[in-house]
Amino acid sequence: DTGVSQDPRHKITKRGQNVTFRCDPISEHNRLYWYRQTLGQGPEFLTYFQNEAQLEKSRLLSDRFSAERPKGSFSTLEIQRTEQGDSAMYLCASSLEAGPQHFGDGTRLSIL
Amino acid sequence: AQSVTQLGSHVSVSEGALVLLRCNYSSSVPPYLFWYVQYPNQGLQLLLKYTSAATLVKGINGFEAEFKKSETSFHLTKPSAHMSDAAEYFCAVSDRNYQLIWGAGTKLIIKP
Question: A2, A97, A99, B48: most buried by Cβ count inside 10 Å?
Fold first, then answer.
């Protein structure tokens, strides 16, 4: 499968715990995006990378969120001290610089 | 600033009937426009894209969309709805950095 891969598909955790999600983009894609999506809403932009450089972060992204793409390939999104409001689907997408974004199936986070 | 408006959070059609999902955009530059489909608990799949070539764009699964600059619209159509078309559909416009600005989505319901 050469599509975007996200792991895990589902994550259930207690409030206050840290969680980390992984995204493996399509191999030749230099851009990687993270989005958050809640039920009945469109994707909400969080951040994106071009190669290993994080070029933009949403103002909505609190200090508890951090993303990395250390070698310009896979990326991780970490949420520290999770809160109830963090419950959502976290989507990763990749693209060539001027191409359409291709999405993974997402990681659904549930905070107990 | 660019924005996307999708008219109707829910659209219901009978199986075999015409599907019309509306999308209007605002953009100060010639836009790139996209339609994505999302099935439950999955990521978003690209249906079709407009990138300033032909104004009538054909996509997957029998969908097509027409770019009308004078109306700032990019409505999605399909001549005959199938039960398998039931999903949520998102329209998006790309900004100068090829980042996507999303509509709120339209849930398509197919009546047997």
Answer: B48
